[in-house]
Write a structure and sequence with these properties.
Blueprint (H helix, E strand, L loop, with lengths): L2 E3 L7 E2 L12 E3 L7 E2 L14 E3 L11 H6 L6 E3 L27 E3 L10 H4 L8 E3 L6 E2 L3 H4 L7 E3 L4 E4 L13 E3 L4 E4 L13 E3 L4 E2 L15 E3 L6
Parallel strand pairs: 1-3, 2-4, 3-5, 5-6, 6-7, 7-8, 8-10, 9-11, 10-12, 11-13, 12-14, 13-15, 14-16
Length: about 240
């Protein structure tokens, strides 16, 4: 068996660890259980070395303490959806050590939205800084400023959603390095300062949402260079 889709099947109780015996699986979808299905840990995943797509959204993973290490053991994983899983927090690290950066997982799509994650997730994300195209961290508890060392180096990103968090501070100039972005959502945070001129370097951007922040100043002239822009929301700021 290579493809197993049990999404919205109304299963309950615990994910059977015997799924780890399906060593040829390329795609596993257990999503849509809305916390009726849970997993004590994810060690059984380590036996699925060929897995490329994993969707556990709305599966209760609140007891999967070492979930990030389990993901790091999937060398073929490209698509990961852990939306609304109650993920345990990754222990915070000091930036110089970056001891979570030890994975060769080629992730392209990553959705960790609706998990109450904090900024301790950033060092782990650096595992995928050269491969990620789609990153959704919306509806979490990310706090502090937007870290330049994390997102500024994700030059391949096409989709980035950091909305509905607790981030504050200014939008870093390095946002202009993400020249392949087509979707950027920083809405509903506590960002202040001006919109950096470097946003104009994101010439492929079609969706830009900076609403519900505390941004000040004028809209940069460089926004006029975004010729593909179809959605622009700057409402509820102090511009």
């Amino acid at each position: 068996m290579q493809y197993l889709n049990l999404s919205k099947a109304n299963f309950s109780q615990t994910v059977p660890t015997q799924l780890g015996n399906l060593s040829n699986l390329l795609s596993l979808d257990l999503s849509g259980s809305y916390y009726e299905l849970n997993s004590g840990n994810l060690e059984w995943l380590s036996r699925l070395s060929s897995l490329r797509l994993l969707d556990l959204s709305s599966v209760d993973l609140s007891e999967a303490i070492h979930w990030s290490q389990a993901i790091n053991k999937l060398p073929s994983l490209i698509h990961l959806d852990l939306q609304n899983c109650g993920l345990p927090l990754i222990p915070p690290l000091t930036i110089p050590s970056l001891s979570h950066v030890n994975s060769s997982v080629p992730l392209v799509f990553l959705d960790l939205s609706w998990n109450d994650l904090t900024s301790s997730i950033y060092p782990w994300l650096l595992n995928f800084s050269t491969t990620l195209l789609h990153l959704d961290l919306s509806f979490n508890d990310l706090n502090g400023s937007i870290p330049e060392y994390a997102f500024g180096n994700m030059s391949s990103l096409e989709y980035l959603d950091l909305s509905r968090n607790q981030m504050w501070g200014s939008i870093p100039d390095t946002v202009g390095k993400m020249v392949l972005l087509s979707h950027l959502d920083l809405s509903d945070n506590q960002l202040w300062g001006s919109i950096p001129d470097t946003v104009g370097k994101m010439v492929l951007l079609s969706h830009l949402d900076l609403s519900y922040n505390q941004l000040q100043g004028s809209i940069p002239d460089t926004v006029g260079k975004m010729v593909l822009l179809s959605h622009l929301d700057l409402s509820c700021n102090q511009l």
